[in-house]
Design goal:
4-stranded mixed β-sheet, 9 helices, single chain, 242 residues
């Protein structure tokens, strides 16, 4: 099969249009996908970004691992690895993925770190990405992709399509299936990310101000991100109950 299953969920920064770059990617590459640039991303070195991330990582890592173990099924790998990608220095992005052994990774790029204005924003992004793993979004997206691919193949085959048409339908179906619930996944991650940020001692209402500076993807059909207003609303609603 030619189509590739989604293997990561991401938080796209100010320099990329979120709906175009996507939060659940359909590539197996660990490199963030190219996106339409809105403005030059702030440039700092990987070392500088790692230093900025260090105090937030020190406070958040143990907390998200405990929450992961408490909220997921026995046997779930909750040993997060959180780091700055030394290879990607141009696109502002953060995403959650898994390594070959199933270990959850939270990967920041240096420009994303540079775009945050305080540790509350960094913690909110980290909590959001940690929440993707706890909520099982990668596995759920893979299931949706496979279901979409199967449905596409069945419909085209039933209509008399040849092998090439069936394969194309599987590719399209996988993409549609993967994106079908991506907006709800983002809101779920925002909700749980708000809780994780708060439990770590940071203020999610300060952290969510990052959205106020992010290009709004709107509510596009099969877009990967919900409108910023919806995301801010779920954070406010969740924070009010803490």
């Amino acid at each position: 099969m030619r189509y590739k299953l989604p293997v990561r969920a991401c938080f796209v920064g100010l320099a990329a249009v979120a709906v175009l770059s996507g939060c659940v990617s359909t590539t197996t590459s660990s490199t963030p996908q190219p996106a339409v640039q809105q403005a030059p991303a702030p440039q700092i070195s990987t070392g500088q970004a790692t230093s900025r991330l260090a105090p937030v990582k020190a406070r958040m890592e143990g907390l998200v691992e405990r929450e992961c173990r408490a909220r997921t099924a026995a046997g779930t790998n909750c040993d997060y690895k959180i780091y700055v990608d030394p290879k990607e220095t141009k696109i502002a992005n953060a995403y959650q993925t898994l390594d070959k052994s199933g270990r959850p990774l939270i990967v920041f790029t240096a420009p994303l770190v540079a775009e945050t204005r305080n540790n509350h924003e960094l913690a909110f992004v980290m909590g959001h990405e940690a929440a993707h793993h706890i909520e099982g979004h990668i596995a759920r997206s893979q299931t949706n992709a496979m279901a979409g691919a199967a449905l596409g193949a069945i419909l085209v085959a039933a209509a008399g399509g040849n092998a090439q048409a069936v394969e194309a339908a599987m590719d399209l179906g996988a993409g549609v299936g993967a994106r079908s619930y991506s907006k709800s996944h983002e809101l779920e991650a925002d909700r749980l990310g708000t809780i994780l940020t708060h439990k770590a001692g940071y203020d999610p209402m300060i952290g969510v101000k990052f959205f106020e500076r992010t290009p709004d993807p709107g509510n596009q059909f099969l877009g990967t991100h919900p409108p910023n207003a919806s995301r801010i609303a779920i954070v406010k609603q969740t924070a009010a109950g803490l």
